[in-house]
Specification:
Bound molecules: 2-(1,3-oxazol-5-yl)aniline
Structural class: alpha/beta
Largest sheet: 5 strands, parallel
Shape: elongated
Length: about 250
């Protein structure tokens, strides 16, 4: 997979050089290019934004630098191909594990993080005439810009790419991963020592009885989901019902 990021804060994307994404890049599983939007400005102040038409607070990002940046990014990519444009915005569709899976199946993503007030709408409209565009929110809160949303999305997507996670099993029990644990939060986890500050590990986990362990883990996941995400319980119940229907 190729990933391009166009930003006025290239240094904000430094974390993509380390850990899981950094290792995937080093192994050639991921090809990441970060571009400074100001490289497509030509005035002495390298201006990228201006006051909003119609008045109102803050600044809007000007269309010209973005248009030229996207032209250049597409020109640098595989001949005859276009990326999927991923636009982080509080007004986008929710970023979910399902959307991460969908985007992990694409060969080329271009992220355009911008400041809160956003990018001139004509940039998105013009881009949509030549590539798929998805506007995505990582949650209902206000950030100063979209760069941190890009870090979230790139990590969630990269770990789904074949071979990036060492143990393929790790996907199966993820919270929100498709399958038996879909719509359930992960339950508690334990490791050595068996006793720590007077606290022991639940006996079932030491029993070696894999059926009992799997049942206990599902019960714990359900209890945690009920406590922290009652909104998911309905979905899970329907999913479980639906699964029984399909198997009937
Ligand atoms: N608040 C923001 C400001 C700028 C760009 C994205 C966001 C965002 C994305 N998901 C939630 O917020």
């Amino acid at each position: 997979m190729r990933i391009d990021v166009v930003t006025i804060f290239p240094e904000y994307l430094e974390p993509l050089n380390i850990s899981l994404v950094g290792k995937a890049r080093a192994r050639g599983q991921l090809d990441v290019h970060v571009h400074d939007l100001r490289d497509w400005t030509y005035d002495v102040h390298r201006t990228v934004d201006d006051s909003p038409y119609g008045g109102g607070p803050g600044m809007v990002m000007k269309p010209e630098p973005w248009g030229e940046a996207l032209d250049a990014v597409i020109g640098k990519g595989p001949a005859g191909e276009v990326p999927t444009l991923v636009v982080p915005t509080p007004s986008g569709r929710p970023f979910t594990q399902e959307l991460a899976q969908e985007l992990a199946g694409r060969p080329w993503l271009t992220f355009t993080p911008a400041r809160y007030e956003g990018i001139d709408r004509r940039v998105i409209e013009e881009a949509a005439t030549r590539m798929p565009v998805v506007e995505v929110s990582i949650g209902d809160y206000v950030l100063a810009g979209g760069e941190v949303a890009v870090l979230v999305m790139v990590e969630a997507i990269a770990r789904l790419l074949p071979g990036v996670l060492g143990n393929a099993e790790s996907h199966r029990d993820d919270s929100f991963a498709p399958g038996a644990m879909a719509d359930l939060l992960e339950g508690p986890v334990y490791t050595k020592p068996a006793e720590w500050r007077g606290r022991t590990v639940p006996d079932v986990l030491l029993s070696g009885n894999h059926g009992r362990i799997a049942r206990w883990r599902r019960e714990q996941a359900f209890a945690r989901t009920l406590a922290n995400r009652p909104d998911l319980v309905a979905r899970w119940q329907y999913g479980a019902f639906d699964k029984k229907e399909r198997e009937a």
